[in-house]
Design goal:
The chain is built from ten helices and three strands; from the N terminus they run ααααααααββαβα. The protein is mainly alpha-helical. It has two domains: 230 residues, no CATH class; 65 residues, no CATH class. The longest helix is centred in the first third of the chain and has 35 residues. It is elongated.
Length: 304
């Protein structure tokens, strides 16, 4: 977004927060340099072995995954605090309203600038993250369903960042205190991420694999899958209760009155990744749109 092509409130917003906006491409460039250096070290004869990703690359990507999860909270907090609440708290927004600018244009400019950053920055960082994640793909804590890789490798991260912007625009007007608005926005955005993260694997029905008792203790689904539940199943197709093991007379067995015949495992195949991403992204974008509508509704109420 070139400052020279901007006019009115958008130009003012970019000028006001140019240091923070410049920090975003700097962060992307620094992240790319670190990941490229670690990838080179992994592949070098004197560095880490490429078939043993434990080490500096794994540690760096662990921190990178946590940072990606915090990005929506940070963007939302910045919108709520420095961009909205601080101007309302200090009264400097009145200056913008005297420059032939309406309250709607004042808020829309801030949301537009923040939304562009909320799309461009996560998308660029996701590309950098994928570059570092590739050698670790499928290893512990770096599978497609793990927290961190799941968000960073799909579309939900951008959606959550846009939600953070919308929540910040609303909370900033309601709280009107910089630090308090930042804290509330981070809390609300984080709670939404936790809630949907806990529900995401119920968006699509699981697949179920069963085997007889004599074949295997636990059936193993084919390919790279997320197992969600496993246990024993009876001849009638009813799943045996968990306390079955406590009544069992022998390892792997159950009382005869339960008529246990085999094992079951519920799982999500890797093909569920993008449908789950699409559903969660749609839900988050709807929440962001509703929150944004509420932000402008509050603005209209207070500036009639």
């Amino acid at each position: 977004m070139s400052v020279l092509t901007l006019k009115g409130p958008r130009w003012v917003t970019v000028r006001q927060h140019r240091r923070a906006l410049w920090a975003l491409p700097v962060a992307v460039a620094a992240s790319l340099a670190v990941v490229l250096a670690l990838r080179w070290w992994v592949g070098s004869p004197s560095g880490l072995r490429s078939d043993n990703p434990d080490g500096a690359l794994r540690s760096a990507m662990d921190y990178a995954g946590m940072a990606m999860l915090l990005l929506p909270l940070l963007l939302g907090a910045f919108v709520a605090g420095p961009m909205v609440a601080r101007e309302l708290e200090s009264g400097t927004y009145r200056l913008a309203l005297t420059q032939s600018s309406t309250p709607r244009a004042w808020l829309a400019a801030k949301i537009t600038v923040a939304a562009v950053a909320a799309v461009a920055c996560p998308a660029a960082l996701a590309g950098v993250y994928r570059l570092g994640w590739t050698p670790l793909d499928g290893t512990h804590q770096f599978t497609w369903w793990d927290r961190g890789p799941y968000e960073a490798l799909g579309t939900v991260l951008v959606a959550y960042c846009l939600l953070g912007v919308a929540v910040g625009a609303l909370v900033g007007q309601l709280v009107r205190r910089t630090l308090a608005a930042m804290a509330v926005t981070g809390l609300v955005t984080g709670l939404v991420m936790l809630l949907l993260g806990a529900l995401r694997w119920s968006f699509l029905p699981v697949r179920t694999l069963t085997t007889s008792l004599g074949e295997s203790r636990v059936p193993m689904p084919p390919g790279d899958t997320l197992m969600t539940d496993t246990g024993l199943v009876t001849a009638s197709g009813v799943r045996a209760p968990e306390w079955c093991y406590a009544r069992a007379d022998r390892a792997g067995g159950c009382p005869e009155d339960l008529n246990v015949t085999g094992w079951y495992v519920d799982y999500h195949p890797a093909s569920h990744y993008w449908p789950t991403q699409s559903i969660e992204t749609a839900v988050v974008l709807v929440l962001a749109a509703l929150t944004l509508w509420a932000a402008f509704a509050v603005l209209r109420t207070r500036h009639r």
